[in-house]
Write a structure and sequence with these properties.
By secondary structure, the protein is mostly helical. It is 69% helix and 2% strand. The longest helix is centred in the C-terminal third of the chain and has 33 residues.
Length: 415
């Protein structure tokens, strides 16, 4: 071994790449043939720390040692070898790909042992998105694994950050492997957006879930199985009906209505049509249909049904605001099928979020949906009215003068 190290020094200082690779490889193979794993780890560290060590030689021994990982006799030896190779490759761009793969192996060992926190911490240290030597498919898989472990660790903020590092355009590839990665990504996003501990805005959480389920529905391998695409499409419909109504919600309603496959789901189509029209809906009538869809799509029926009831009441409030300038509270409660306190709560929430304009007059027991004009709006309206009046007067004068010209009659000739 001493002679090999002396020869390694000569070849290294002589900048002989092939000879250095051969010598360092021989040193590692001798350690492996004797099953002396501690000596192997020690020699790997020694070779890597030699002054002016050639990149090719270090890359060669790291890749060679990676083939020995599955041959280790027990878990402790395997972990020690992996940690040695990680320490050797840290900070060296020419073995960054090997370091990433080794770290993933180490994280897998920790996860199998139930050490989720250690696995997530180990894998999150690798900034794989900056690696140019890694293929897109492997890089995407790596980022998904990082996000998954972060979620298992309950670090939802980091999981969200990692998920945003994935460029969604890569999922346009039609190969089956990319489609599987696409499904993994959106399943992960569904878990992230559904979890109460995630950093989600309540207003658009349901719309994000709609987007995820609709993307799953559009995946070719899902479209090949009828039950799978139907469940994904039904889930999209359920979440768009429970989403807070805004411009994006209206766009999703129309997009789902225009989907050709919706003709195979008549109940979904009917509910979407109902929420797209300005008509009063009754919860007792729509409850059974929605509950059936939620259960079939394997969603949470209790939570979804409560939210659906609130969204239906909000829909009715928007319809009333379009049809009435003012209405009594008793009539309002009758139309939205809610008790007085609940109706006020729903209306107040919509007013706060600027979904509708309303003012409640408690002494009179009325609600006004007419928004008073601001001074600028009032002046603009008056100006437009005066402008319209002057235009009408000018047009009238023009018509009178035209009649005089036609009949050749002057004003003085009538005297």
């Amino acid at each position: 071994m001493d002679e090999l190290f002396a020869l390694e020094k000569q070849t290294r200082l002589g900048n002989d790449v092939k000879a250095t690779e051969a010598v360092t490889t021989a040193i590692i193979e001798i350690c492996r043939s004797t099953n002396d794993w501690k000596l192997l780890n020690s020699n790997v560290l020694t070779i890597s720390k030699r002054r002016g060590q050639l990149k090719q030689a270090l890359t060669k021994i790291v890749r060679l040692c990676m083939t020995y990982i599955d041959e280790t006799p027990n878990r402790d030896v395997k972990v020690e070898l992996i940690e040695t190779l990680i320490s050797v490759s840290t900070g060296k761009m020419y073995v960054e790909l090997e370091r990433a793969r080794l770290t993933k192996l180490l994280a897998k060992i920790y996860e199998d042992e139930g050490k989720i926190s250690q696995a997530a911490d180990a894998l999150s240290e690798v900034q794989v998105e900056t690696y140019g030597s890694m293929e897109k498919e492997e890089k995407t898989d790596y980022l998904l694994e990082q996000a998954r472990l972060s979620m298992l660790k309950s670090d939802f903020v980091r999981a969200g950050i990692l998920s945003r590092k994935i460029n969604l355009s890569v999922f346009e590839n039609s190969s089956e492997s990319w489609q599987q990665l696409k499904l993994r990504y959106y399943d992960l996003m569904i878990s992230l957006h559904s979890h109460p501990g995630a950093d989600n805005e309540e207003a658009n959480r349901d719309l994000k879930l709609v987007e995820c389920y609709f993307a799953i529905f559009g995946t070719p391998i899902v479209r090949a199985e009828e039950e799978k695409w139907q469940k994904a499409l039904v889930a999209s419909v359920c979440y768009v009906l429970t989403a807070w109504y805004e411009k994006d919600t209206a766009n999703w309603l129309q997009k789902l209505l225009q989907e050709k496959e919706m003709r195979f789901l008549p109940e979904c189509n009917r509910l979407l049509q109902a929420f797209s029209t300005d008509e009063i809906l009754y919860f007792a009538k729509e409850k059974d249909s929605f509950e059936k869809l939620v259960k079939w799509a394997a969603l949470s029926p209790t939570e979804m049904l409560e939210l659906f009831s609130v969204r239906l009441s909000q829909h009715n409030m928007r319809v009333i605001a379009k049809c009435y300038e003012a209405v009594t509270m008793s009539r309002l409660c009758e139309l939205v099928q809610l008790p007085l306190a609940e109706a006020e709560k729903v209306l107040s929430e919509m007013v706060v979020k600027k979904s509708v304009y309303a003012r409640i007059n408690r002494p009179m027991g009325t609600v006004s949906f007419v928004k008073p004009l601001s001074p600028d709006e009032c002046l603009n309206e008056w100006r437009s009215d005066v402008g319209a009046l002057l235009s009408a007067v000018e047009k009238t004068c023009h018509v009178i003068n035209r009649e005089y010209m036609i009949h050749r009659v002057l004003p003085d000739s009538t005297k």
